[in-house]
């Protein structure tokens, strides 16, 4: 037991990876059933493993917890250095929960190369947890990059008609950003006198111009991942073409990796540059919040609409980070978790429809509520959450960000608040056209309502959205100390 | 001139051993007839290489010594690289057997030439003298010409051999001319003595610059670096795949060794003269290799351009002129050799008589036909692209680190951006294998029975590229310490 508790993070990373390899070993599609159950078992056990992270987490300190540290590449002082704080713990849990969701969501939909499909998701789960836990620069980079491989395959193998283009675009966009991050890490290695320890980098004195360059290199990696305007164009393609599970993971977790990168790496390492560039980033965030929301308004394709909505909501996250205010930053982190649930759920809803009629066009549907009342309940609920209805998690995040921003600059807050209007407009308009109205398409009349599996998955996610919406205190409590410390760190100039 | 002792000969025992056994195998193969070609010669060759590989490791932890009147140096680096050469060549022949047999290339001469090539490479690795270096280079080149031309029925092989021969001879001439100028300026051909004059002979003297430029040009040609790369794609593409494997994988170790000997031992005092040349050649190689590879439809040509860009990365480790850079380049060359072995191993496993499997389209839908081989190729491709957690990533990390440490920030940024371009064509192979569907005709061909042991070795080879990750630090450390002779000198 001791061995287990001292290496909890390693278990969380490597158990799903090894499990993924085992699933892969079940082989061809003849043993698809075995692959499915094995994958489900592994994802559930990983979730159970991650529970002690929440219960055993000391909420009073901002120090890294569950730390594991071992020399790895001694020549360059690269370490196997893991640890979590209040910012990463919620993200790890989000990952373990959503992986279960994704496994169940792919249960019947995926009929070809089943073992490979589930293996890719499990391996990716481990790598994503690795990103959230790594405290060594190269280890972080390793997980960050390695994650591209399974995602590339998921989009390319099980995706839609234009999947190859989307997969390669996704890969190359992120690779370019990541490699610049690598150069920055190598530079910091030199500046720190031969270390890759991110926590040491946080306190490394750097001159103004160096900070700017380092920050921009990290910005290239993280902004592409989030994605921020104007490097967001890969996301609609990747989302639309990816299978439902891939879209869920992309929206719910990989986008958060970019935001997490800002908090863990870019901002604390180059605080002065972050302060200096903040107006530009706030501008881009507001642009995303408003302009991308307007683009979402005119989409004909449901997945594309949700993809643009994701970019818009992630604009809120970056806005919350770069006003340097406690409530705004906590709101932004809540928004990350909440958006993980909501966008994931919306993609699942679209997946439910797509599995039945093989169309993502809004115009195909209409009057779905008449044949699928339970489904209609869920999609309306998640749409409301997406629009930021009080009582759902979407409200908490956006409200806190606007509140925090208002105390810094009323104009920023005013522009950001527009999203409450436009966001509601595009989501509810989509729901209105899909769910309500008269049935135009005879095929819609034959639709079957949710089966038990779909119902269970959506219920699970709805539960998450509601809990955070009604009672966000535990979540805020976990991150409180870490956010305070981060802001205190950012307020001190390194110059 | 001192009298030679037993110790002198013991230092070159592996070379003598391989050369003697090569002669023996030539005779044995002539006189022992058997139903299958090379039934005796092949196991004998493998046994020779493996035992020579072990023999080379003797003296790994001994202090460096220069033997045979200053012709050969025996140190930790040479022990490791020679051993790697022997084992690598054994791997090459192991992979090549079925392919070469089906095409009638599997004759005693083929094995004997590859053994003499090994002797050439060993001479290059242990060179402490410009003459040894030159003899080694030429011995390897002659064997390669012969091996390429051995495919007599193929017009393309003949063309490749001819091209390689003429251009190779030209480059040798340039190299030799540079060496003779060096001799004229320094009064010695011994690398140690040449470097000893760097204090008195300034780098801005025109004859010296000319000499160094010619030597570097000759070297760059042998490496296949831009702008002396023209022969690489044609030779790779024209040769039988088994020969392409031989000439693309193992000689990279020797290439690293001659760069190390010449630049670090011999010409280090004039680093300001050759540094810029290498910077330009490295960047051009990475750029041209990666960009032109995109346009290829033959996987052999694609891998040829990939070699060019990888040689560029190898040079990145060199122009820094630091120990860290040399050890990075050493790890890079080794990992590149192992990766190339696996890449061609997959191609050879997929080829069979009448079907070369050297077009990119032949990889279409491989995941359906043979998911295991597809997975192995996937690992190899990501390793070549330098995506973690593969060994290829750590190799690139090390050389970039070394170049950055030496202050070449712009060069590193440019190399990194070009690496993204490179990632595209490796991804394309993955795309073909995983995303595209099989054409019906090709599916039928997959019934070919693969030799079981070959798939096992190939699996270890490719999976090893990922499995080494937890211990990669030890590998880097070992390479770094070997350059300083494990602290012995």
Give a summary of the structure in a few sentences.
Helices cover 76% and strands 3% of the residues of chain A.
Question: Can you put this structure into words, describing what you see?
Answer:
The complex is a heterodimer of chains A (495) and B (489). Chain A is mainly α. Chain A has helices spanning 2-6, 8-25, 32-55, 88-105, 114-133, 137-146, 148-158, 163-191, 198-202, 208-225, 234-241, 244-269, 271-297, 302-322, 326-357, 368-371, 373-386, 393-408, 410-435, 442-445, 452-470, 473-491; strands at 65-73, 78-84. Chain A has a two-stranded antiparallel sheet with strand order 1-2. Chain A is globular. The model of chain A has no long low-confidence stretch (mean pLDDT 89). Chain B has a two-stranded antiparallel sheet. Helix content of chain B is 74%, strand content 1%. The longest helix of chain B is centred in the middle third of the chain and has 32 residues, at 155-186. In chain B, helix 9 runs parallel beside helix 13. Chain B has helices at residues 6-11, 13-31, 41-56, 76-102, 108-125, 130-149, 155-186, 191-196, 206-223, 231-238, 241-248, 251-266, 271-293, 299-319, 323-350, 366-369, 371-385, 391-405, 409-434, 440-445, 452-467, 472-483; strands spanning 65-67, 72-74. The interface between A and B is large, with 36 and 35 residues.
Strand content of chain B: under 5%
* Separate helix tally of chain A: 22
Q: Report on the biggest sheet of chain B.
A: 2 strands, antiparallel
- Write down how many β-strands of chain B occur, each being a DSSP E stretch of 2 or more residues: 2
The count of β-strands of chain A is: 2
Order of helices and strands of chain B: HHHEEHHHHHHHHHHHHHHHHHHH
Average pLDDT rating of chain A:
89
Helix and strand composition category of chain B: mainly alpha
Provide the succession of SSEs of chain A: HHHEEHHHHHHHHHHHHHHHHHHH
Treating each run of at least 4 consecutive H or I residues as one helix, how many helices of chain B?
A: 22
């Amino acid at each position: 037991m001791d061995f287990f508790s001292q290496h909890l993070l390693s278990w969380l990373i490597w158990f799903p990876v090894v499990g993924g390899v085992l699933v892969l070993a079940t082989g061809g599609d003849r043993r698809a059933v075995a692959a499915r159950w094995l994958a489900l078992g592994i994802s559930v056990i990983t979730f159970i493993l991650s529970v002690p992270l929440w219960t055993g987490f000391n909420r009073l300190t901002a120090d890294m917890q569950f730390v594991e540290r071992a020399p790895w590449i001694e020549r360059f002082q690269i370490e196997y250095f893991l640890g979590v704080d209040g910012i990463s713990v919620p993200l790890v849990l989000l990952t373990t929960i959503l992986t279960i969701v994704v496994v169940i969501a792919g249960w019947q939909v995926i009929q070809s190369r089943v073992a490979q499909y589930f293996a890719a998701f499990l391996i990716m789960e481990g790598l994503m947890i690795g990103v959230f836990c790594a405290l060594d620069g190269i280890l972080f980079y390793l997980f960050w990059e390695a994650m591209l491989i399974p995602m590339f395959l998921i989009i390319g193998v099980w995706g839609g008609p234009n999947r190859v283009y989307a997969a390669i675009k996704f890969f190359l966009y992120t690779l370019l950003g990541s490699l610049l991050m690598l150069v920055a890490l190598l530079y910091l290695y030199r500046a720190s006198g031969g270390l890759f320890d991110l926590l040491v980098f946080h306190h490394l004195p750097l001159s103004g111009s160096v900070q700017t360059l380092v920050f921009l290199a990290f910005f290239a990696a993280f902004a592409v991942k989030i994605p921020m305007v104007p490097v967001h164009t890969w996301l609609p393609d990747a989302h639309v073409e990816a299978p439902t599970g891939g879209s869920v993971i992309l929206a719910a977790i990989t986008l958060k990796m970019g935001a997490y990168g800002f908090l863990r790496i870019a901002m604390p390492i180059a605080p002065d540059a972050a302060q200096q560039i903040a107006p530009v980033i706030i501008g881009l965030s507001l642009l995303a919040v408003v302009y991308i929301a307007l683009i979402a308004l005119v989409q004909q394709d449901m997945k594309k609409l949700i993809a643009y909505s994701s970019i818009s909501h992630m604009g809120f996250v970056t806005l919350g980070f770069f006003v340097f205010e406690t409530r705004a930053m906590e709101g932004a982190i809540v928004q990350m978790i909440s958006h993980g649930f909501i966008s994931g759920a919306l993609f699942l809803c679209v997946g439910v429809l797509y599995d039945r009629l093989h169309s993502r066009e809004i115009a195909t549907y209409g009057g779905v509520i008449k044949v699928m009342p339970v489904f209609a309940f869920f999609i309306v609920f998640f749409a409301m959450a997406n629009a930021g209805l009080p009582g759902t998690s979407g409200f908490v995040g956006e409200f806190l960000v606007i509140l925090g921003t208002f105390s810094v600059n009323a104009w920023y807050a005013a522009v950001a608040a527009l999203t409450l209007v436009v966001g509601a407009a595009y989501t509810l308009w989509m729901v209105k056209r899909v769910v309500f109205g008269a049935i135009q398409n005879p095929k819609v009349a034959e639709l079957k309502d949710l089966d038990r599996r779909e119902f269970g998955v959506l219920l699970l996610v709805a539960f998450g959205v509601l809990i955070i919406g009604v009672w966000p205190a535990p979540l805020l409590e976990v991150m409180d100390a870490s956010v305070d410390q981060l802001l205190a760190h950012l307020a001190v100039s390194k110059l | 001139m001192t009298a030679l002792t037993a110790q002198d000969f013991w230092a070159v025992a592996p070379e003598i051993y391989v050369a003697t056994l090569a002669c023996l195998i030539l005779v044995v193969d002539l006189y022992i007839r058997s139903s299958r070609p090379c039934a005796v010669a092949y196991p004998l060759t493998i046994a020779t290489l493996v035992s020579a590989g072990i023999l080379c490791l003797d003296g790994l932890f001994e202090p460096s010594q220069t033997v045979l009147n200053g012709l050969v140096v025996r140190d930790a680096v040479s022990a490791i690289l020679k051993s790697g050469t022997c084992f690598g060549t054994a791997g090459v022949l192991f992979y090549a057997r079925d392919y070469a047999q089906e095409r009638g290339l599997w004759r005693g001469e083929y094995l004997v030439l590859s053994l003499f090539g090994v002797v050439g490479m060993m001479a290059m690795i242990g060179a402490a003298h410009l003459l040894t270096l030159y003899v080694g280079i030429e011995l390897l080149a002659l064997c390669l010409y012969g091996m390429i031309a051995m495919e007599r029925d193929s017009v393309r092989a003949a063309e490749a051999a001819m091209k390689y021969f003429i251009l190779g001879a030209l480059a040798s001439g340039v190299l030799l001319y540079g060496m003779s100028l060096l001799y004229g300026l320094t009064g010695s051909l011994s690398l140690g003595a040449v470097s000893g004059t760097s204090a008195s002979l300034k780098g801005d003297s025109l004859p010296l610059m000319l000499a160094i430029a010619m030597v570097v040009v000759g070297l760059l040609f042998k490496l296949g670096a831009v702008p002396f790369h023209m022969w690489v794609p044609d030779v790779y593409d024209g040769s039988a795949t088994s020969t392409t494997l031989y000439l693309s994988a193992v000689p990279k170790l020797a290439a690293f060794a001659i760069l190390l000997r010449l630049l670090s031992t011999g010409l280090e005092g004039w680093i300001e003269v050759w540094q810029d040349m290498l910077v330009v050649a490295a960047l051009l190689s990475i750029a041209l290799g990666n960009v032109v590879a995109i346009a290829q439809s033959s996987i052999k040509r694609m891998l040829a351009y990939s070699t060019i860009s990888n040689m560029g990365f190898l040079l990145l480790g060199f122009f820094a002129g630091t120990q860290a850079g040399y050890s990075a380049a050493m790890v890079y060359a080794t990992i590149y050799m192992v990766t190339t072995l696996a890449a061609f191993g997959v191609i050879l496993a997929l080829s069979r008589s009448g079907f070369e499997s050297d077009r990119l389209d032949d990889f279409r839908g491989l995941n359906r036909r043979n998911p295991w081989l597809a997975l192995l190729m996937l690992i190899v491709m990501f390793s070549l692209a330098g995506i973690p957690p593969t060994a290829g990533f750590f190799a690139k990390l090390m050389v970039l680190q070394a170049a950055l440490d030496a202050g070449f920030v712009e060069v590193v940024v440019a190399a990194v951006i070009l690496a993204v371009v490179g990632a595209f064509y490796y991804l394309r192979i993955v795309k073909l294998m995983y995303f595209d569907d099989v054409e019906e005709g090709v599916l039928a061909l997959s019934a070919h029975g693969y030799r079981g042991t070959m798939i096992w070795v190939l699996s270890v080879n490719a999976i090893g590229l990922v499995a080494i990750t937890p211990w990669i630090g030890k590998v880097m450390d070992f390479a770094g310490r070997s350059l300083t002779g494990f602290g012995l000198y």
